[in-house]
Amino acid sequence: MSLEFQRELGIKRAQELNFQSKIWNEGGKSSNHEELDKRPILSLLFNEIKRGAVKHLFVYDQSRLSRNDTVSSIFRIECAKQGVTLYNKEGKYNLSDHNDHFMKQILDAVGQFDNAQRAERTRLGKLARVRQGYWQGGPPPYGYELKNRKLIINEEEAKWVRLIFERYANKVPTLDIKIELDRNGVEPRRKRGNWTMGSLQSLMRNTHYIGFYDFKDGKSEEEIRIDCPRILTSELWNRVKATRDKHSERRSSENPTKHFYLLKHILRCAHCGTWLSGIYSATQTKNHYYCPKKEREWTKRPIDAEDKWKRGRVCEMTRSLNIEPTDKLVWDAVLGALEKSSLMKESIRKEITGAGGQKLQVSAKEAKARDGKIKQFQKLIAKLDDSLVELETDRLMGNVTPAQYPKIKAKITDEKINAEAEIEQIQQLISGAEQQKNWIDWVGKFQNKIDNYRNFTPEQKKELLQGLLTTIDVHLIDKQTHWLEINFKVPLVGDQLVYKDIAQKSKGYTVKEGGSALMIEMASRPYSKKKPYAITS
Fold first, then answer.
1. In 3-state terms, what secondary structure has residue 308?
2. In 447-463, which positions are buried (b, 16+ CB within 10 angstroms) versus exposed (e)?
3. Given a cut of 50, is residue 353 above it in pLDDT?
């Protein structure tokens, strides 16, 4: 009942008894705080009863005093000691009378039981609604909106969710993604200004985007997995997760980068697999790429090791690369490969865009085999779903420990996501090669810029290289020579058009794939002016 209605009843009862009345109003705190020390108004009232200033007390029902058995008992004892008569909507109780006191105890117990039952019905009703897919509390995640209290995709926001994941999967720094969102006027859900690095990282851990989320009941600690509309593919989710894991490893051992490095997170040590770091100091004339594994392994060196100072003990990459000539050599080599590529010149216009091009064909046997693999993965996913249900049952029955539960659940979930990604890849092979799709997406962005590549800013160059390359593996051949193995995402190195009839090119052609790697010889730092840079492919 409303507080105003309770107030009116109390005043009316006081008037009937020819008493003056004083209102003790603490709002709705009796519903939220059970301890006496957290209810200052009730504490003041208790002190007034204790000193004998209150002899008649009206409450609408017992729950208005407290739903806590301890607090109720304290009030009953003190009211009986001070001879206080207690009134409620049903009558009055002289708590110094044994019969009234006993009846009050019974009514208190009934009230508490009723409240407990009501709370349990509310909790079970909430769980039932959750299982039916109804959203419970708070704003929906970015990319979604509510319709009839269920999540549906907000297409305007969803396109930015996809952009965030695509950019991050392609190794675009989170700061650059934030700047792009802010520049396009994209506001976060809470609209308290611009995006933050933390909000973007949190968004990229949100499983809603791959079609599920976990709801945990606070009382039973039961976790329920709820399906929701999917925005991303499992394949893209896995790529982002892999990139995030790599960044996490680097953050644990690297200091923040203050200087811009064109090839950082692209150059990789071929000897130990570590991403090369950059170092720049104008005062100390330091300006080179180097393998940082020696620095990261420093604390792991045994103190008494005789060879702890030995050069190359941790990694064979003992010579660094001058940044400026390395950047120039790689940039020129990549653009040279693009300019020579038949795939760039002709396949974009004909084969890939479909303007008179040829489509990929698969045989009936291949199609049947792929369909069979999809069915196998679908069966696996169904079994993994059953395993998650069984795991939750085992947790509730105590068959798995609290420490084992999250690890097992994460393992099953990862296996399910991987199976979904496999299905997506097979489906992409059926409809067309995934690399071609990625290539089309990339070309759509850079096609208008490629003719003006000489004027690219350093940031544009980095974005172009990240779109084209997987890694550049650096091999130290000797004290004076490195080999740079530039690995492209598309096999365009040395590709060519093969015409069916050279005399009559209108009869069509096919594209003969090239290689994905381009080898470059590079002088070590300090480089010798006598030793030229040469592309050997």
1. coil
2. eeeeeebeebeeeebbb
3. no
User: Token pair for residue 27?
Assistant: 């709002």
Please state, as a whole number, how many other Cβ atoms lie within 10 Å of the Cβ of residue 8: 11
Distance CA 264, CA 277 (A): 6
Strand ranges, E, within 99-149: 144-147
SS3 call for 135? coil
DSSP assignment of 322-363: EHHHHHHHHHHHHHHHHHH-HIIIIIIIIIIT-SS-PPP---
Question: From CA 131, how far away is CA 112, in angstroms rounded?
Answer: 29
pLDDT digits 0-9 by tens, 200-223: 888 999 999 998 888 887 777 777
Rounded CA separation 180/167 (Å): 10
* Enclosing H/E stretch for 159: helix 155-169
Six token digits for residue 329? 């050599």
Look at residue 456 in the predicted model and tell me its pLDDT: 79
**Radius of gyration, alpha carbons of the chain:** 35
**Residues 297 and 512 sit within 8 Å (Cβ to Cβ):** no
DSSP character string of 192-209: SSS--HHHHHHHTT-GGG
Residues 6+ apart with CB under 8 A from 301: 308
Strands (E) located in 275-314: 277-281, 286-290
- Encode pLDDT of 320-330 as tens digits: 899 999 999 99
Q: What's the burial of 523, exposed, middle or buried (CB within 10 Å: 0-12/13-18/19+)? A: buried
**Paired residues of 509 in beta bridges:** 499
pLDDT digits (tens, 9 = 90+) for 278-294: 888 766 677 889 988 87
Residues 6+ apart with CB under 8 A from 67: 30, 34, 111, 112, 115
Distance, in Å, from the CA atom of 309 to the CA atom of 298, rounded to the nearest integer, reads 10
* Cα distances (Å, whole numbers) of residue 263 to 103, 123, 273, 324, 460: 82, 55, 15, 10, 12
- Beta pairing class for 321-322 and 286-290: antiparallel
Name which of 62, 26, 28 is nearest 44 in CA terms. Answer: 26
**Edge-to-edge strands, sheet with 481-488:** 267-269, 469-478, 481-488, 517-523, 534-535
Strand intervals (E) in 355-495: 469-478, 481-488
* Partner residues linked to 409 by β-bridges: none
Q: What's the number of CA atoms in the CB half-sphere (13 Å) around residue 52?
A: 1
